Amino acid sequence: MICPHCHSENRDGARFCNDCGLPLSGKIAELAAAVDKAESDSAADAGASKAVPGGGDKDDSSVSSDPAPSPSKARAGASGPLDPSALPSIDVAGVNVDENGDAYDFGPLPGASEEGSSEEGADVARAADDLAPFVPKRPAAEEVVHGADLTGIDECLVDASYVPPAASWRSGDTMEMPRVEGDSAPKQKEFRAPDANAKRGGKAKVVAIVLACLAALGLAAAGATYCLELWGGKMLPDVVGMTQTDAVYALEGKGFSVRVLEVKSDETEGVVLLMDPGAGTRMEEGTEVTIHVAASRSIPEGTVGVPRDEAANLLSAEGFENVTYATEESGEHEGLVLSIDPAPGTKATASTPITVTVAVPYTIPDVTGMTWDEAKAALEEKGFSAAVSYVYDESVEAGTAIGTDPAAGSNAAPGASVVVNVALSRAAELESATWGLFSEGASINIGGVDYLVSSCDAVAYEGSETTSFTITAKPYTTLLGVTLPLEARSVSGTIVWNADNTVASITGS
After folding, report:
1. H-helix or E-strand containing 484?
2. Is residue 429 a part of any domain in this protein?
3. Which of 80, 217, 361, 485 makes the best surface tag, with the fewest CB within 10 Å?
4. What's CA 147's distance to the chain center, in Å?
5. 3-state SS class at 343
6. What distance in Å separates the CA atoms of residue 231 and residue 226, rounded to the nearest whole number?
7. What confidence tier does 78 reach under pLDDT thresholds 50, 70, 90?
8. pTM greater than the 0.85 cutoff
9. How many CA atoms lie within 13 A of 389 on its CB side?
């Protein structure tokens, strides 16, 4: 953007010229542009009518006889008048236009008197004259000379290399005076334009500083009195780790009330473990502070003779963690605590091993596989009396206990009678009876023949209450009361037995 006044180049959108400070927008810029255009038109007209330099053939009368230039052709910088129609109008809000840009009506008000109208008309004329742009006028007696000798005028022109000084009207800017040719260079001085904003708000700053100082003093005083606990309550001291007596003394000395709660702990008895509210809290005087004091653990009384669940709750309330339970057969009610180790009232820590013995009813022991003698001893040890009952059973060895009545595991009162079932082999029993039947010298009738047994050679149980046998015997006969034995021989046969072990029949083979 080119300044219309000094023709220096500025950035696009600049509001003022960087060199001369002329506004680059608005009414003033339009006025400057109009003046610059007028100067350009005037310079063109002067070039066309310029006289021949060096005293030519034209006489003075020809110069003076030229018609005077019209106002529209006069150069803006010359002494002649400017054409007002070529200049832009300047509208000033509140002076000749309102806030919306509409021109004020300076005409006389309706109904005004002639005298008043003349005075108001004079005021309006003066106001209009003040608002009209200034146009310098040439005196009427002065003649405009055209075609003047301009020889040597180039000596007065500004050198093309001349750079105008920077504008110094802005706050904080400096200006350096140009050097005068031919004289010694003066000492450079800096002239700083006064800062128009420096004096603004001076008193306000002083008042603000004073108020800030007063506020700081007030805050300092409030903080000091707060730290001295003159207001805002008092700070709770840390009493954790103190004894109960010392803690109560320290808290009551600050004006607080104290509530003591005992807590089962392995710590030293009587030492404060916890406080509520915590240390460092600011509280009003009279506030209740609860302190938790360590109390020793002990095996609670009343744990023997109560049900197991009740004893477990008592031990848990004391904080014991290592509790085991054992059972013992007893005539007491099932689940009743018979004993506790350590004994009730004994002091202990949370990890101390504690054994609780609980009653269970007597039960019949399992004696299966024992002999009768062994089964009898086991039952008597448990407090029962034993009786025997033989039961034929070929699956086990004869004489082995195969069960009890009541059955093993059943509950029974101490001293109750328990029957032991002992296995009895029918084969063994009948074989034994067969061997006894054929003893040496015995007389036996087999198949209608009487024999005197010399020896029993073999016996076997054949099942179904039957045994087989082989014997060596001598048949004999009786004559006149005299026994006459014959030659011995081997005799075999079978015997059928009754349930009571008597012979049902003997048959020879």
Report:
1. strand 482-485
2. no
3. 217
4. 97
5. coil
6. 6
7. very low
8. no
9. 11
Q: Are residues 499 and 468 in the same domain?
A: yes
C-alpha count within 13 angstroms, C-beta hemisphere, residue 203: 0
pLDDT confidence of residue 160 = 62
The residue behind tokens 């808290």 is: 251
pLDDT tens per residue across span 151-192: 555 555 555 666 666 554 555 555 555 665 655 655 666 656
* Beta carbons of 429 and 422 less than 8 angstroms apart: no
Q: Beginning with the edge strand found earlier in the chain, give each strand of the sheet holding 323-329 in spatial order.
A: 323-329, 354-360, 337-341
Tally the C-alpha atoms within 13 A of residue 245's C-alpha that lie toward its C-beta: 1
Neighbours of 272 (CB within 10 A): 22
Domains held by the chain: number: 4
Question: Domain range spanning residue 483?
Answer: 437-508
Both tokens of residue 383? 């407090």
Would you say 103 and 97 are in contact if contact means Cβ atoms under 8 Å apart?
yes
Mean pLDDT over the full length of the chain: 76
Residue 249 region by backbone torsions, left for phi larger than 0, else alpha for psi between -120 and 50, else beta: alpha
Is the bond preceding 361 in cis, omega lying within 30 degrees of 0? no
Domain assignment of residue 83, yes or no: no
**289 and 239 in a common domain:** yes
Q: Are 390 and 355 in contact (CB under 8 A)?
A: no
Q: 403 in a domain, yes or no?
A: yes
User: Does 492 share its domain with 448?
Assistant: yes
Query: What is the distance in angstroms between the CA of the first residue and the CA of the last residue of the chain?
Result: 158
Question: In the numeric block, which tokens belong to residue 442?
Answer: 């015995």
Residue 101 Ramachandran class (φ > 0 left, ψ -120 to 50 alpha, else beta)? left
